[in-house]
Design goal:
Blueprint: H1 3-18, E1 37-40, E2 43-50, E3 53-57, E4 62-67, E5 73-75, E6 79-80, E7 83-88, E8 100-102, E9 109-110, E10 123-125, E11 132-133, E12 146-148, E13 155-156, H2 165-173, E14 177-179, E15 182-185, E16 191-194, E17 201-202, E18 213-217, E19 224-225, E20 238-241, E21 246-247, E22 260-264, E23 269-270, E24 283-287, H3 290-295, H4 303-307, E25 309-312, H5 335-345, H6 369-380
Parallel strand pairs: 4-7, 5-8, 7-9, 9-11, 10-12, 11-13, 15-17, 16-18, 17-19, 18-20, 20-22, 21-23, 22-24, 24-25
Antiparallel strand pairs: 1-2, 2-3, 3-4, 6-7, 14-15
């Protein structure tokens, strides 16, 4: 495991122990006869069980905490005790035997390590309700070949699908793996990389330890990034982050050749360890005023920032609204977009949309046959 990620894992483990939440739930750990209250920060929850499932019950929701480790077929209900099941807890560790998995249409988050090392899991359909998949959630699922995403942006984190056949297949198709506006993985990209218009988010560690990438240019639509995005990119020389509002933990760790960093005038914070172990001297172009730069939360004594030449360009950055109908985010709307949408509506395996919102032509918030018809009319006009 990458040594930078070990820090995060250790931190998570320590935090969970402090909160009295078990890191794993062993087989038959709970028999349902005892309900114990715990404090998760200021929020209380109780433990419960339903069949082979164990869960945490909060005042307004249920989190799945574990399951009998021998279970191979798992259907997680959308509701338990009259409350919606909204999350799979971090580091569940008991799904190792699962072969068939059905997730509920109430699920909003999948926690860290939730299904990692499930070596028999071949496919997963993510529900339309899903908003976030945390780090390493499906890592080393060595049989996972098919992942069906909902037709909207889902935030993913570090190494979410690392070492899965699904990710390898996506990389062969395009080393820049983008699903519905989220850069899931870019660790096999080379040279100068430009993210397409409509991209919204870069997952944590997306470029981590990529020694072949030399520059990354993001459209203004990319407003968010996870931690460790460029960790260990030893030959990275430039990064244009014109829309990003937060520079996270060890974003530029050990990027000792970086000379040109461009930052959004809407930036609010630079993590105190964003430039950890970085000996480079760079020019930082800030697309805002000096006063706005001074209001950005950051370490005033950060050695990298103190060495850097700060240039203020309030009129720079610009915007780049996506082209209507350009669901493959190649900068134009054409026949390829119509074919892609048609294949997606047929639920063909491994069909992903780089920018689904560009295909929502009728503005309904979902993609359907009406959008396909309108897209065809646009192309014929």
């Amino acid at each position: 495991m990458n040594q930078r990620l070990i820090k995060v894992t250790a931190f998570l483990a320590a935090a969970m122990i402090t909160a009295a939440v078990p890191l794993t739930v062993q087989k038959n750990a709970w028999d349902g006869s005892t309900i114990t209250a715990y404090a998760d920060g200021e929020e209380e929850f109780t433990e419960g069980s339903s069949g082979s499932l164990q869960y945490f019950k909060y005042s307004d929701r249920i989190e799945i905490a574990g399951i009998d480790m021998s279970e191979t077929t798992i259907t997680i209900p959308s509701e338990i005790e009259g409350l919606p099941v909204t999350r799979i807890a971090d580091n569940v560790g008991t799904f190792c035997a699962v072969e068939t998995l059905k997730l509920p249409d109430s699920l909003k988050q999948i926690g860290a390590y939730a299904f990692s090392w499930c070596s028999n899991l071949k496919s997963v359909t993510l529900p339309d309700s899903l908003e976030r998949i945390d780090f390493q959630a499906f890592e080393q699922c060595s049989a996972l070949e098919s992942v069906t995403f909902p037709p909207h942006f889902v935030e993913t984190s570090s190494y979410t699908f690392a070492e899965t056949p699904w990710l390898e297949a996506q990389r062969k198709n395009d080393p820049l793996v983008i699903v519905n506006g989220c850069v899931v993985d870019a660790r096999t990209c080379k040279g100068d990389v430009t993210l397409p218009a409509g991209t919204k988010f870069i997952a944590g560690s997306a470029f981590a330890n990529n020694t072949a990438v030399t520059s990354v240019t993001c459209p203004a639509s990319v407003t968010g990034m996870g931690d460790n995005v460029f960790t260990g990119c030893e030959n990275l020389t430039a990064a244009d982050l014109k829309g990003v509002t937060y520079i996270g933990y060890e974003t530029f760790y050990n990027c000792n050749k970086v000379k040109d960093i461009r930052l959004s005038g809407k930036l609010t914070e630079i993590n105190t360890l964003a430039f950890e172990e970085n000996s480079a001297t760079a020019t930082i172009t800030f697309y805002g005023t000096e006063d706005a730069w001074n209001q950005v939360e950051k370490d005033p004594d950060d050695p990298f920032i103190k060495r850097a030449a700060i240039v203020f360009d309030p009129n720079g950055g610009g915007s780049d609204d996506p082209v209507p109908g350009d669901i493959n985010a190649d900068g134009q709307c054409n026949h390829e977009d119509a074919v892609l949408l048609f294949d997606w509506l047929l639920a063909k395996p491994d069909v992903t949309l780089a920018n689904w919102e560009a295909g929502d032509i009728d503005g309904s918030g979902t993609l359907n046959a009406v959008d396909l018809s309108l897209l065809k009319q646009m192309l014929l006009a």
